Amino acid sequence: MLSSQKQAPKMKIKQHVSLFPYNTFGINHMASFFVEVSDVEDLKKALLWAKENKHEILIIGGGSNILLTQDFKGLVILIKLLGVEILKEDQDEVFVKVGAGENWHAFVMQSIEKGWCGIENLSLIPGTVGASPMQNIGAYGVEIKEVFYELEALNRESLELETFNKTECQFGYRESIFKNKAKGKYIISSVTFRLSKNPTLNTEYGIIKETLKEMGIQEVTVRDVSKAVIKIRESKLPNPAEIGNAGSFFKNPTISQESFEALKKQYSNIPGYVQKNGVKVPAAWLIENSGWKGKRFGNIGVHQKQPLVLVNYGQGEGKEIVELAKKIQSSVKEKFDILLMPEVNFV
Fold first, then answer.
1. Residue 324's domain is classified under what CATH number?
2. Relative to the CA of 300, which of 156, 252, 257, 310 has its CA 20 to 30 Å away?
3. Which residues touch 327 (CB under 8 Å, ≥6 apart)?
4. Are 306 and 249 in contact (CB under 8 A)?
């Protein structure tokens, strides 16, 4: 019962709910209050209820980009806004509006089934559609901004829906306005993508080409690229259903050309990818060459195949993972003078 609280909306606000099933790290912290919302009106009601009762709010989608470090004393809102709607299409492209609560990988698979192209390189990325523009998800040479058209987001103060185009989202590397200037001000409710019907396949990044060759594929299709990406990801990344993790824990840092050349003299095998603003160095290489790959500390550790992934083997605490992340940052900074920044949000 919510006897000490003001009148709750009709949707079911639960008390003292374990967040274990709602975060891919598998951390067992509690939410004082918890609600699932399946439409924008319920979302507004939940926000109003939290405001009237002076509760903090935590928005969760797929829970694949958060690290819980303590119980959450406010209201956790699980976004279940669903739906896939074609807004317009012609022989060359389709504009498709997708609810923020839709599973990202399921949407990628659905797009491939329908012959829509542009997101096949982003197969098997965990999380929901609503989170995809928030951090401009990317993999194997493709980023969301390349297929993004617009999104709708609820202003948490005015409770009005606002539309953001690509420019207004201010996309950067794993960045958008929703992680910076507008952090905590909006809740994304839907995303509209502009997908092609005439595939331009991107197989140059990483080992996609070699994987396709290993698979014996010569006439490459969109579906084949997706299969290759899935095969690569499954070979390197642990399944959160088996080992708690949030995928890549750190961003790949970009350093100046001058700094990269200096490091190259010391470490001739250091990889680097030239960008407009410098050279991107793989964080996984930096972590591995600082001696962390495969290290285990009780219930937590660094994954043995992919050092960019921190894992919870079971019964691990979020605070333990934070401490491990800090030690890795310190170690990499000391050896390479590069500060790694987390991709994961600490709660």
1. 3.90.78.10
2. 252
3. none
4. no
Q: What is the domain count for the chain?
A: 3
Structure tokens, 234:
């499954």
Q: Which of 199, 230, 198 is nearest to 212 (CA)?
A: 230
Distance separating alpha carbons of residues 228 and 217, to the nearest angstrom:
10
58: exposed, middle or buried (Cβ count in 10 Å: 0-12, 13-18, 19+): buried
Note the pLDDT tens digit of each residue in 94-120: 999 999 999 999 999 999 999 999 999
Q: Which tokens sit at 95?
A: 């504009």
Residue 100 near residue 129 (C-beta atoms within 8 A): yes
Q: Distance between CA atoms of 313 and 296, rounded to whole angstroms?
A: 9
> What token pair was written down for 256?
């100046």
Q: Which domain holds residue 119?
A: 84-236
> Are 196 and 131 within one domain?
yes
291 shares its domain with 204 = no
Same domain, 292 and 323: yes
The domain boundary residue, chosen from 220, 236, 252: 236
- Cα three-residue angle 292-298-303, rounded to 5 degrees: 40
Q: Which amino acid is it at 332?
A: V
> What are the backbone angles phi and psi of residue 262, rounded to the nearest 5°?
-65, -40
Same domain, 208 and 291: no
pLDDT digits (tens, 9 = 90+) for 41-59: 999 999 999 999 999 999 9
| Assessment of whether the complete model's pTM goes beyond 0.70 | yes
Residues 75, 90 share a domain: no
User: Annotated active-site positions, please?
Assistant: 174, 248, 343
As a whole number of angstroms, the distance between CA 212 and CA 75 comes to 46
As a whole number of angstroms, the distance between CA 144 and CA 85 comes to 18
What is the domain-level CATH number for residue 64?
3.30.43.10
CA 34 to chain centre: 22
Distance CA 192, CA 117 (A): 14
